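In this section we turn from sequence analysis to structure. A common task in structural bioinformatics is to predict how a protein folds when a small molecule is present, because the ligand can shape the pocket around it. The inputs are simple: the amino acid sequence and a SMILES string for the ligand, here magnesium ion. Study the lines below before reading on.
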Amino acid sequence: MATLVLDGLRKSFGKIPVLHGVDLSMPSGEMLVIVGASGCGKSTLLRLVAGLEEPTLGKIILDGVDVAARDPADRDIAMVFQNYALYPHMSVFDNMAYGLRIRDMPKAEIERRVTEAAGTLELSALLQRKPRQLSGGQRQRVAMGRAIVREPKLFLFDEPLSNLDATLRVTMRAEIRRLQRRMGVTSLFVTHDQVEAMTLGDRLLVLHKGQAVQLATPMEVFNRPANTYVAGFIGAPAMNLLPAKLAQNGRAAQLEIGPTIAFADGPRAGADGRELIVGIRPEHLHLDPAGFVLPVDLVEPLGSETVVIGKLENGQMLTIKLPCAGVSDTSLRVGISEQHLHVFDAQTGLRLEGGLSAVPSS
Amino acid sequence: MERRTIFPGTAFPIFLVLPQLLLTVVFFLWPAGQAIWSSMTRADPFGIRTQFVGWENFQDLFTDPLYMDSIGRTVVFCTSVATLSMGVALLLAVCADREIRGRGWYRIMLIWPYAVAPAVAAVLWILLLHPQIGLVGRALNRHGVAWDYKLNSTQAMAVVIGASAWKQVSYNFIFFLAGLQSVPKAVIEAARMDGAKGWFRFRTVVLPLLMPTVFFLIVVNFVYAAFDTFGTIQALTQGGPGKSTETLVVKVFRDGLINLDVGGSSAQSVVLMFGVIMLTALQFRFLGKKSDE
Ligand SMILES: Nc1ncnc2c1ncn2[C@@H]1O[C@H](COP(=O)(O)OP(=O)(O)OP(=O)(O)O)[C@@H](O)[C@H]1O
Ligand SMILES: [Mg+2]
């Protein structure tokens, strides 16, 4: 149970910069999920906090103390690795007890903690087994157990569920969340799974090319993505990002594909003709006899919903999620829900909020 | 996927295997058979008549206190060589496993001694250790250490152990380095996160994972020390002073080719042959086990 502050954390491997200054402040007990594309520096960030890599610059303040120069052994942080990294030559019990024995904990206390963790994680019957005699899911739980018996200041998870099958992943996801809440241990959780990102964390940190692009609650990130990258990254299927121009004194966007849509949440700053990117989630497009024509490229029925991918004449792809089955596979007429537009600047990619700044008088 | 070519008939396949069979027969089976035969014979003092004596040579051998001494000496020698060369090699491998500058060169240099012929290596050691002309030998004597491995049996033993171990360090180093590199990095990192440091981490996590390599090398080093060090010992001390560095292989040579007791010497080499066969079987079992996992 500790607070964590990252202050201008930078990391370069040789001359190649990987993290360009990450700032972060976590209250005690928070679960922060880090998402981002492969290679954006998620693992590197986690390993810096763990102490497995040395930061090029910046502070890592754990409970008010800068631990950036400390050995990982002296940070009191537990980490769950993607491939579990269990000690192959030790029994499940010894795997979990190893970190406690190092701390010279009394035998009875070690016994108590390991037995309790094993009970919670349904490992009680497996305590004498070696890791190679366990299934993937069981190994994952041992790795979890090894972290929780330590009762550390901080949990670090590096995609701990990515090697599990879909069903097990759902169960373990809930289990991790429950354990973390109950223990109240401040946690960093790296994933590139959309659902994990949305459901697991109190807050979400989106990393892009070594930069923190947005830090907010999952719903906030989903509803008000800070830029086009976040907009395209969070949400599945991905948001449609359409080039457009500001029109009607900043009160509407003239889409390149044809229709002009008025902003429901107020005008945007700038002169008419300003280049924009308009983001529309697939679920915010609907069938509309008065809408524009969309030639269908591909229909993906998902059971309760249908995802239609269309290709417009200018080559622009458009994804629509419809709450019904049996749609035409040649062409559709599509309308846009005005309430759910996301507007970004075409140059910077940054989000433009509606109604906040005055409409220029020109 | 299996890829093999099957040759028709019997003549052609036999023709293909023949060279290898011939080599095995001429250089192994034939002399081994001869050794077994002559280990059961005894020649008269003038070498004119040989006579079949059955197990008598072996009975003599195992009641001979000199032979027992030689066995004891060989055990001490082998244990020392294996311990020393494996210990040093492990230390060097641990250093080479770290991220250090120029480790490519460091590794190549460490592998060199393996390529040096025993006689050449021995000459180098003599040039270093000789009491009158050797660099180290002269320095020792100058500083009041009575150094002469040609007279002092303890020093002689130390020299042959050192020289033999030195030659084997490269081999052990390669295996230890490979062993260390196959220890998953994440497991070491997990141990670091768990709070394990330095020697403790090495002892509780790395070493247990290295045990298959250690067992394998123990067998290999014993075989090496017992049978492959003849060249080194012969060139350095010829088994002397007295019998102080006379291991079993050296004794075979001395008794057979210098003292011309062909029967006794053959009996000794037959005993050694069984030793090699047993150690090799052991080694195969370890190798087999390793590939099973
Ligand atoms: N030890 C290293 N030496 C050099 N470059 C490295 C090292 N470790 C990571 N990198 C580089 O740093 C960048 C970020 O790597 P990192 O492992 O943090 O990505 P990630 O976000 O965890 O990706 P993934 O989702 O695939 O795990 C990558 O471009 C990688 O090539
Ligand atoms: Mg990663």
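The first strand of chain A starts at residue 4 and ends at 13. As an exercise, try to locate the residues that line the magnesium ion site and compare them with your own expectations.
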